[in-house]
From TrEMBL:
Protein name: Trimethylamine methyltransferase
Keyword Glycosyltransferase listed: no
UniProt organism field: marine metagenome
InterPro entries per the UniProt record, alphabetical: MttB-like_sf (IPR038601), MTTB_MeTrfase (IPR010426)
Compositional bias per record (Acidic residues), positions renumbered to this chain: 1-12
Residues covered by region (Disordered): 1-22
Single Gene Ontology MF annotation: methyltransferase activity
Keywords linked to the UniProt accession: Methyltransferase, Transferase
One annotated GO biological process: methanogenesis
Highest classification ranks of the organism: unclassified sequences, metagenomes, ecological metagenomes
UniProt record similarity statement: Belongs to the trimethylamine methyltransferase family.
Pfam families given in the database record: MTTB (PF06253)
Length: 63
């Protein structure tokens, strides 16, 4: 839950986290908890080949 409707005193006692801070904590927890779904090994090989081919065709971006 990102929003908080607690009173100011409860919010301060809880660490006074704003929405940005709560979103960052939630995002980090989601990354920590992520498990890649199982994928057939032959499909993985095909996907990697496709990605590598596309990377070779497109210029590298800053991101």
């Amino acid at each position: 839950r990102l929003s908080d409707s607690e009173n100011v005193e409860s919010w301060e006692e809880g660490g006074a986290h704003d929405m940005r801070s709560r979103a960052h904590q939630r995002w980090n927890q989601m990354l920590k908890d992520y498990e890649a779904p199982p994928i057939d090994p032959s499909l993985k090989v095909e996907l990697e080949a496709f990605v590598n081919a596309r990377k070779a065709q497109l210029p590298d971006a800053w991101y």
